[in-house]
Automatic annotation (TrEMBL):
This is DNA 3'-5' helicase. It comes from the Bacteria. Belongs to the helicase family. UvrD subfamily. It comes from Nesterenkonia sandarakina. Residues 31-315 form the UvrD-like helicase ATP-binding domain. The lineage of its organism: Bacteria, Bacillati, Actinomycetota, Actinomycetes, Micrococcales.
Length: 730
């Protein structure tokens, strides 16, 4: 039961249309499900726990369960609430339910559901005007710190904000936080450079500032809703009358506060279905805990338990590595007779045909690693893999710069997940306005896709991608994504109209559920959860990054292992695992590959990296390879350079600059304005080191510009005209 190439394993719809399903018996909805999915989907009564491994079609199982229950008359679609953790996942669930002939089911995030109830019941339960919701805590935290005469910087304020969020979802007040954090064996580090007692005071001061300004924050939405449900039995009864059945997705990520609200919604009833995988718990730092999932049968002894282990996403080669990673920790737990044993993980069974063997390699330095990844992506592109089906995943956002630089140099388009949102882009907003006001808004059926193309043609769309790069290409990619979505929906939905397409776009905009944009995805491992690609590069797999250096306890290291597992299981066919021995070119190579790679090497039959061999590469060790390179020297003092930035500048950091400082500052100001215009980080255009060389050499021709480190053919084509203008002015 393998999936077709470049098709999401979790988004495969039912082969029958909504109209056909409506005419068929309810059991027709179960057609096409595997044995375990069918068991889950046909178990409609009582508590149900679905343990679903990565790529096993959990969303398919629960949406078919809901649709089957609605068709069978067991569920009233307006009295069932499905909750998940992201607006994107909720929008996806609503879309699938609509396609399965079950519109009207409420699919929301915990916060969206709580906010809706809070807004509705506030006038009756509390009275007065409901406070505004605070977007960010930092500004109010800064004021709270000033009131206490506590000195903090912005980075510390972000840490303090995160700790407040953790405390709130863990249902801790400033007083109870201090008791928990300072309890013997708690081991919770003090946040933001302050001690626990000072933090508790800051927490209370922050609450006071909020109260003074008549504001509430994100976590208060849940806390206040819980308070109303606990204190006002009439409100609780009304909510329980409204919702009779509940489905909770990603149940391993539930926090104590969310579980408390869920219990209040249920009011002692047992009509609940939970879905999750303890091996994918990666948000413990936000208060998430798999304890509720693992203890579900203990709390509900009569609950049915279904395990989904057939992996339709990844090849056997990828699945084998994922299983090996978890099995290694299981063996370790048994060997150590762990008092808090590692929970027995699901052993996935791939349903796909065999694929290529994953690549595992260590590089000399970060730049070499980034360059290798770019070359491998080029090779994949030549094989027909779309760039939108490629992702580079890393542990921290700070790692992205090297990959951005290497992709830009290679002329490979990319998108940073977590940067500017698709529906916030100017060209997308303009396109939506054009669609809404078009005279073709009443078109329906087969003409919708053509109408969308006609409307967007005046906004940068064409059947063939432009050869130009930069803003022109980015605009075209945005328009092409909208056209592709129109094509997809017109084939999936009957009675598809331009109006329904506009409604879909508006709903997706509200949920930030963006269509696919052509380009390599750069993302942190945390932000990759719930996504998948044909090819995945897991980069920077060195000790200190994976596991991260501040993971000290076994519990924290276990979370890092699960994060790595999530990264591996994002890949459908091609998987690349890489690390770098040194941060800078010519460095001493002190980094060691991640400990998590050991069981994978054993599975793949690759020896541990020695002093002379690069794993799976067969070349010289990073140190030996670096020594063979021709040394770069400072153009002023002649000292050998080892730092990558110094090499690019051709001078030591301590040697005086040889460039025209006035021109350099003018170039920096130009770059800043230009970056805002393109809506990209400034370094993506040119780094400071490149601007220094330009200010020193004052190149006047394309040939001279191409000799500047950091300027290649693509950058010259993309930014050359604007750069020549500023140089001419100077």
């Amino acid at each position: 039961m393998s999936q077709p190439a470049f098709t999401s394993s979790s988004s495969t719809g039912h082969s029958m249309s909504a109209t056909q399903l409506a005419a068929a018996p309810p059991e027709a909805i179960l057609d096409g499900l595997d044995e375990e999915q069918r068991l889950a989907a046909s178990t409609l009564k009582g508590p149900l726990c679905i343990l679903a491994g990565a790529g096993t079609g959990k969303t398919r199982a629960i949406t078919h369960r809901i649709a089957y229950g609605v068709r069978a008359g067991v569920y009233d679609p307006h009295r069932l609430l499905a909750v998940t953790f992201t607006a994107r996942a909720a929008a996806e669930m609503r879309s699938r339910l609509s396609a399965l002939g079950a519109p009207g089911v409420q699919a929301r995030t915990f916060h969206a559901a709580a906010l809706r109830q809070l807004q509705y019941f506030w006038p009756v339960a509390i009275g007065g005007t409901m406070p505004q919701i605070l977007d960010h805590k930092v500004r109010l935290l800064a004021e709270a710190a000033r009131r206490l005469h506590v000195t903090t910087d912005r980075a510390a304020l972000r840490d303090l904000a995160s700790e407040i969020e953790w405390a709130k979802v863990s249902t801790l007040t400033p007083e109870s936080y201090l008791e928990v954090a300072t309890a013997e064996g708690a081991g919770r580090p003090a946040p933001g450079g302050v001690d626990h007692r000072t933090f508790a005071k800051l927490y209370q001061s922050y609450e006071d500032v909020k109260l003074d300004k008549h504001l509430i924050d994100f976590e208060d939405v849940l806390l206040l809703n819980v308070g109303i449900l606990e204190d006002d039995e009439r409100v609780a009864a009304q909510v329980r009358q409204q919702y009779r059945h509940f489905v909770v997705d990603e149940y391993q990520d539930v926090s104590p506060l969310q579980q408390r609200m869920l219990d209040l919604w249920l009011g002692g009833r047992d009509e609940i279905c939970v879905v999750g995988d303890a091996a994918q718990t990666i948000y413990s730092f936000t208060g998430a805990t798999p304890d509720y999932l693992l203890g579900f049968k203990r709390r509900h002894p009569e609950a049915n338990l279904v395990k989904l282990v057939r992996d339709y996403r990844s090849t056997p080669e990828v699945v084998k590595l994922a299983n090996s990673l978890l099995a290694d920790r299981t063996r370790e737990s048994v060997k150590l007779n762990d008092p808090a044993p590692w929970p027995e993980p699901l052993q996935l069974i791939s349903q796909r045909e065999r694929g290529p063997i994953p690549k595992l390699i260590q590089h000399a330095d970060d730049d070499t690693e980034a360059g290798w990844i770019a070359s491998e992506i080029k090779a994949l592109q030549d094989q027909g893999v779309p760039l939108s089906e490629v992702a580079i995943l890393y542990r921290t956002n700070g790692q992205s710069q090297a990959f951005e630089q290497s992709l830009a140099t290679a002329g490979i388009s990319y998108q940073l997940r977590g940067s500017e949102r698709f529906f916030s882009r100017r060209e997308v907003r303009e396109a939506l306005a054009a669609l809404r006001t078009s005279s073709l808004v009443d078109d329906a059926g087969d003409t919708v896709s053509k109408s969308v193309r006609d409307i967007l043609s005046s906004h940068g769309y064409s059947a063939k991608a432009p050869e130009a790069t930069g803003a022109v290409r980015e605009r075209w990619e945005s328009m092409a994504a909208l056209v592709a979505l129109a094509d997809q929906l017109s084939t999936e939905r009957e009675d598809f109209t331009m109006r329904s397409f506009i409604t879909e776009l508006e709903e997706r905009s509200a949920a930030q559920h963006a269509p696919t944009v052509e380009g390599v995805t750069l993302a942190s491992l945390h932000s990759a959860k719930g996504l998948e690609w044909e090819a995945v590069f897991l980069a920077g797999l060195s000790e200190g990054l994976m596991p991260i250096t501040f993971a000290k306890t076994q519990k924290e290291v276990d979370e890092e292992r699960r994060l790595f597992y999530v990264g591996i299981t994002r890949a459908r066919k091609f998987l690349f695992l890489s690390s770098a021995a040194s941060r800078h070119t010519g460095g001493r190579g002190r980094r060691t590959p991640s400990r998590f790679l050991r069981p994978l090497r054993k599975e793949m039959g690759i020896e541990e990296p020695g002093r002379k061999i690069i794993p799976s590469g067969g070349g010289l060790s990073p140190n030996a390879s670096a020594r063979k390179k021709k040394a770069s020297t400072c153009s002023t003092c002649g000292k050998i350079l080892t730092n990558g930035t110094e090499v690019k500048r051709r001078r030591c950091e301590s040697c005086p600059a040889r460039y025209d400082e006035a021109l350099f500052e003018k170039l920096r100001a130009w770059r800043s304005d230009y970056a805002k215009e393109l809506e990209v980080p400034a370094f993506v255009i040119f780094t400071d080191a490149t601007l220094e060389v330009i200010a020193e050499r004052r190149p006047t021709s394309d040939e001279a510009l191409l000799k500047v480190p950091g300027i290649g053919e693509r950058k010259l084509e993309k930014h050359g005209e604007r750069l020549r203008e500023i140089l001419k002015e100077a």
